[in-house]
C-alpha cells in the first residue's frame, strides 16, 4: 500500500483489529478503524489511527460512517455472537455485505482480507466438533462440512462482492488468538490471566478447565501480531491468488506442557487435568464482586469481570473432543514465513496486561 492508499480495519478495537491497526500504522500507512463504539484507553486504537463508528448490522449506519472514504484495502475482523447459528449466519454475513456494498462502488477497492477460524473445520459453536470433522492437521483445500456455518456465509458474501467489484481477496483461518482487547468475546490469554489473578487472591490453585483430549493432544495458537502481518502480506503481495490461508504461530504444543509454564508466568500454582473437566463457568461462578474488589485494591483499569474474561469461550476451546492444529504449507509455499513462539506470545501479552493495569503485577 502506498501513501495514497487507505486501509479500513473493520472491528479495529478487537484482538485482531487492534493488532492490524498497530502494524499498519507502524508501517506508515493511512488507517481507519471502524467499530460500533469508541472504547476508552487502554482499548483504544494506536496513535495515528483514524476512527469511525457504525452499527455494522445497519446498512444505513455503515454507509453514513464510510461516506467520503474510499478504502483500497479492507481488513474485516468483526463478528457478532448470536444465540443460534441461523442468527449468526444472518447477522454476520450481512455485516460483510453492508461494508462491501458501501465501499465497492468506488472502484478503488483492491483487496479484502477476512478473518475466520478453525470452526471452518470443526463446525459452529452449537454443533462444535460434533459429527463429521476434518482430520488434523487441518488443510485449506478440504471441503466444507455439511452443516450451517456463518464462516461459510461470510466467505460467500466476500466471493460474490469480489466478482462484482473486481477486487482480490484472502481468508485467514486463525486458531485461538493471543492478543489484547478489553471487552472481546473470544479472549483466552486475558481470560487465563484473570483466572490466575483471582485464584492467587483466593489462595486456590490455577486449575486447567479442559478435558483429557486437549490436555494430552497436540494443538497450536495464533498470535494477533502474526495474524496481522499475514493479512497485510496477502493484501499487498502482487501475484498471489485469491484463496484461504491457515494462520498459526508455527509451533505446536500440548497443554500438559504449556499449563505449568503459563502458571509460572502468572505466578500461580498450577493444577492439571484430573479425572474430569472443570469448566471456568463453574470454577469462576460468582466471582464478579471478588474481581471488583481486586480491581479497586490494585487500581486496575477494568472492574467489570465480563469485560476482561470470556469463560464460555475458553471452556469451548479447551473442551473440544478432538485434537486441533493446522497445516501451514500453503502460506509458507506462497512466501509467508512468519513464526512466533507461543509461550513467548503469552508472556508478552501478560507483560502488556500488567503494564496497562488490566491484571495485577
TrEMBL record:
<dbReference type="InterPro" id="IPR055222">
    <property type="entry name" value="PRISE-like_Rossmann-fold"/>
</dbReference>
<dbReference type="Pfam" id="PF22917">
    <property type="entry name" value="PRISE"/>
</dbReference>
<protein>
    <submittedName>
        <fullName>NAD dependent epimerase/dehydratase</fullName>
    </submittedName>
</protein>
<dbReference type="InterPro" id="IPR036291">
    <property type="entry name" value="NAD(P)-bd_dom_sf"/>
</dbReference>
<feature type="domain" description="PRISE-like Rossmann-fold">
    <location>
        <begin position="72"/>
        <end position="301"/>
    </location>
</feature>
